[in-house]
Amino acid sequence: MKRLWNWLKRLKSDIFILYLxxxxxxxxxxxxxxxxxxxxxxxxxxxxxxxFVIPGLGYIDDLVLISYVAGFIKxxxxxxxxxxxxxxxxxxxxxxxxxxxxxxxxAVLLLALLLGYRFLGLRLY
Length: 125
Prior knowledge:
Elements: H1 2-23, H2 29-43, H3 57-76, H4 79-120
Helix pairs in contact: 1-3, 1-4, 2-3
């Protein structure tokens, strides 16, 4: 179970790395093209194993394919560029975490306000 958790955490960090790699001009064009194809596969409704055939298994094959292709793309990136992108991705993850927390707190406060007005019978205008 711990291996699965580490694999999912690595996949999450790969998303930030691949995002920054796509924007970096030092990354080879072949890696960027493969990244665009991967993004098209993720967005596309066509799957190798449809999600409705065996619930859950259709999503697992997508995760495995994404993981392997992401690893292949990371190997195509030169080592110096990859280390620079990895450092930037760590900073991006930290800022994203704080933004996500801020958005969630604001959503809970807004929901509490709306429910308070609804159940207390107060008017907003």
